[in-house]
Each structure stands twice: as structure tokens, then as C-alpha cells.
Amino acid sequence: MNTLFRENIEKMQGYTPGFQPKDPSAIKLNTNENPYPPSPKVFEAIARLDGQALRKYPPVLWDGFRQIAAKVHSVEPEMVVCGNGADELLSILVRCCCDKDRLLAYPVPTYSLYPILARIQDCPVIELPWGGDYRLPPELGKTKAALTFLCNPNAPTGTFVPVEEVKKLAGEISGVLAIDEAYVDFAEDNCLRLVREFENVVVLRSMSKGYSLAGLRFGYAIAGRRIAQAMIKVKDSYNVNAVTQAAATAALEDQAYFLANVRKIIAQRTQLITGLRELGFKAGPSQTNFILAQIDRPKAEEIYQKLVERAIFVRYFGYKALEDKLRISVGAPQENEALLSALQDIIKKEH
Prior knowledge:
The protein has two domains: 7-37 and 256-350, Aspartate Aminotransferase, domain 1; 40-254, Type I PLP-dependent aspartate aminotransferase-like (Major domain) (Aspartate Aminotransferase, domain 2, 3-Layer(aba) Sandwich). It contains 13 helices and twelve strands. It has helices spanning 7-11, 40-48, 51-55, 63-73, 86-97, 113-121, 163-172, 193-197, 225-234, 242-253, 255-278, 300-309, 333-350, and strands spanning 27-28, 80-83, 104-108, 125-129, 147-151, 176-180, 201-206, 219-223, 282-283, 290-294, 312-313, 325-329. By secondary structure, it is an alpha/beta fold. Helix 2 packs antiparallel against helix 10. Helices cover 40% and strands 15% of the residues.
């Protein structure tokens, strides 16, 4: 068959992002965005940029951000690698580590971008179901994969694997262990300390969730020098623009503002879980800024559609192990209240 593209690209489906409603009055609880604006220091940093900053290429190794990240996380600047969103860093790692003979492994269900990146790279995948209570599958340390992804806290379940269990996994595998901590801002612990203990561990962070910068696309990885240098070889030449670098640096530096917003979201998460349980959902616990809520009747898909009719958007995946569940982002108080009111009405009419 004559084709313009590689066979694996012709056959694959692309990543399906969450729906983006055009109505600005819609209640958008489907893509785990922060309901609060970024730090005021972000806008000040952007305003300080002049024509010279935009006329020239941006810092190729993100010098300003690296210095602040090193200070905040108590690491060396050379251990920090920045990307156009954490998704780019995931892609870089797959390109660094995987090919048709070098496997990618991860527990499922998890972030649905992982298999897409594998298909693009045409590498085999080992998907292992989570154990009971979303514990690590014992087989994950025995796959001999070149790269293992662990989303922790996990999306879309909101669950967290204790650091000691992740440490055991890191010691079992010979390949790279990439711990995707996109949601760790809302968790009780994190795996950053494992980077100092294991040469094969890299931790990935996002500025989209806790720092309210989803629209600017910025993520960063922290790893030992061997992994960091390999990732720098593979990245695009100027992969993060000057505006984004300035904004991300200012946001990370303003830890007081960041922590205040995180505390508000965690408080709202607790209230939302309580409200969902009172309506008959099995919901939480969660270590993220979203809740995976399960219900038998009405069916989750029916509830999703009825919420759409009310211009309230949550996430329904519809694939195995998630057919009876909705993933609900934690919004601002008025958004969460509107959601609970709509759900009460939907469930009441069903009964």
C-alpha cells in the first residue's frame, strides 16, 4: 500500500484532550485546571519583557528558571530540564529510551498520553493492571522495560503510591523510572528524594495545575546528570519561549501565593468529596485536584450527558475499568456548588 506516512502513524489514533467549551459561562471541570489565577508576579514578569527579549532567541538552557528551581527543590541547576509542558518531557523520554526493541511499561488505567507516545515511537508497550486499592502491580519491576512510567499521584484515579513502594520499584528495574508528578502539588508526599538515591529515576513536574499556567505550557524534570544530559540532546533547540520562561520563573518563585491556592483547592476537594458521597457516589480519597467518582445508577455516561445539557463539563472516559466513573476537577466554591446542585437534580429525577 502506497502511503505518505510510517505504517504505525497511519494506523494510530491521536491523543484525545478534554473538551474545550466555547461558552465562557460554562462550568469547566473536565481538564483539571486551577480555578484561581496565576501569581500577580507572573504578570509583572511578562510586563517587564521588552522588544529585545522577543527579538532574540530565548535562553536555550532556561537559566533563570533553573536557578529558582534549584533553590526551591534543593538540587543542582544542571539537574533541571524544562519543556513545553510536561507532555514534551514525556515525549523526550520515550525518544531517549524506546524503540521497537526497547519497551515502555506502566500500570493502567493511567494518563492516556502514554500509549500514544509509544505508538509514535513504534515501541512495544507492557500495560499492567493496578493491584487492589491501586497498589503497584508486582510484575512492574520485572518487565525489563527500557522506560517505566509511574503517574504518582495517578490520573485518573487520584491515588498515590507511597514513596517507600516507589523506592522498591526503582531498585528492581534496570531501565529509567519516570515518575510523573503532574498532580503532586496537592499530595501529602512526593518522590523527589529518590532522584538523589537512584541514577535511573527522573521526576516530572507541571506548572499547569498548582501554578495556574496551563495556558502557557511549561513543565520541568529533575534528574541526575546522566538522564538530564540525554534529555537535553533530544529536546528541540529552543523549546521554551521567552515569555513562558519568565512567567514560570516568577510563578515558582512566589511559593507563598502557590501554597495559599493549593490549600484552598484541598479544602474544596474535601467538601466536594463529602457532597458527592451524600449523593450516593463512591468518591475519593484523592491526592490531586480532581476526584474520580463512581456511581451505578444513573449510569455515569447518562449523568455526563445531562451535565453537558446544563453547560457543566466533567470528564467521562468510557473505557474498561472507568465505564461507571466520572473524573471531576475541583473548581472554585461556586462551581462546585453548581455541580452538586445539578447532580442532585439529575439523580432525584432518575429515582
